[in-house]
# Entry
Amino acid sequence: MVDAAMVDGSALLTAFLHGMLGAGRWTAPRGGNLLDGGAPFYDTYRTADDRFVAVGALEPAFYAALLTGLGLADDPTLPAQYDPAGWPELRRRFTARFAERTRDEWTAVFADLDACVAPVLAPTEAHRHPHNAARGTFVAVDGEVQPAPAPRFDRTPAPPPRPAPDPAEPLDVTAVLAGWPVRR
# Structure
């Protein structure tokens, strides 16, 4: 038997948070900590076309690339990255700079920079992103795009998803149950 509750898996995703709490590194109210929108180098920003880019430039190398892409690398007046007292000024500067160009223009600026800056995509755009397209993350079934099965196993690939039933048709529960494997 495999007991794989979704709530257990989602709780496990918070292990880093519990580590930070235990180390005294997650102490501010919501929106004031390093990874919950408090840090201006780990947040989302509105662009000129009313879309967004996500920034996750935690490490110094990524932060340096972020400043390069924003044209702020040589600005001596910029507050230090990890000084929370300077975060309001950093956020103001980043907000103003990102508002100068469209999301796609910023995507092009950061395409060759390892800055942890990415476009925030609408669900209807995600399947066209080059990374998702190359991985086959989404598939079309009867003309409808949907996520491909996951996780992927090299020796036992999942079958492709089936189209959703027509909501206008009555559900044949007997036929549905007949398609399920029986374990004894």
Summary: The CA atoms of residues 141 and 162 lie 7 Å apart. The longest helix spans residues 87-98. The radius of gyration is 22 Å.
